[in-house]
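Reply to dn_fold:

You asked what the input looked like. This is it:
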Amino acid sequence: MKISDKLAAHQTFSFEIFPPKGDLPLEKAFEIAGAMATCGPDWISVTYSAGGSGNSDNTVAIAGSIEEKLNTTALAHLTCMGSTAADVDAYVAALAADGVQNILALRGDRRPGRGVVDFAHASDLIAHLRATAGDAISIGAACYPEGHVESPTEDADFEGLYRKQEEGADYLVSQLFFSNDDFYRFREKCLRHRIKLPIVAGIMPFTSVKQIQRMAFNCGASIPAKVVKRLVQAGDDAESQAAAGVEYACEQLCDLAANGVDGLHVYSMNKPAISAAAYEVLAGCGYLAR
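and this is what came back:
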C-alpha cells in the first residue's frame, strides 16, 4: 500500500532500520525487521546503505522481505549523489519486482569520489522518479526542522522543500530534532512558504553523550538544556544514558501525538527494544487507536 494513502487516512507510526555492515549478517536484519513488525507499524523504512557504503542490494532484499514475508509496507531509501539515471531506473525496477512501491528520495551525503552525475539535488531525483514511474510509486522526501546544514539561508531551505513538492513528492519525513517546539515552528513556516505536504516527525533517542554530539554536528540539530540535564543526571553509566534517551524520546512522541502531527517515525537504530518502548507509550496515550 502507498504511504501517501496511509497518511491521507490516519496519523501514521513507523520505524527505520539500516542494512547490515561489517559482521552483521543479512539474516539478522530480517530478524530485526520481524521484531519491529510485531508492533504493527504503518511502514518500516530501510536506509540505502550503512555508513554511506552504497549497499543498495541489501536495501532491496530487506525491503522486499518486509513486504512479502512480514506483510508490512516497506519504504526504501534512495540516494542520488553519484548515481546515473540508469542506476536509479535499475534500482526502482528491482524494488518493483519485489513489490515495493514506496521510495524516500534523498540527495545523499557528499563524499570524496562521489559527485554530481545526473542529479544535483533530491528535487531532481523526485522529478525523474515521477516522470519515469508516474503514480506507480509514492515518493517521500526529507525535511529539516532546524534547516539543512548546507542551506545558506532559511528562505533557501524552504525554496528547496517547495521544489520537492512541485516536482512530485507526496509527503515529508523530518530529520531528528530534540525540541518539539522547533518542529512546531517549522510546521507553521511550511504553510507560510506554500508547502502543504503531510509532515512525518522523525525522532531518534540519544544513547550516549558521544552519540548526541555526533548527531548534533552531522545533522545540525541543537541540544536543549533539558537534554543536557538528563545526560548529567544519568552520569557516566552507559545503560543509564541510553535509558534516559529512550525516556526523553517517548516524552517527545507523546507530546507530538497530542499536537496533531501527521505521522511519527522512530529512528530505532536497529534496536527492537526502542521500537517496543515507542509503541507502548503511544498505545498508552491513544495515538495508535484506529
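The first strand starts at residue 12 and ends at 17.
Hope that clears it up.
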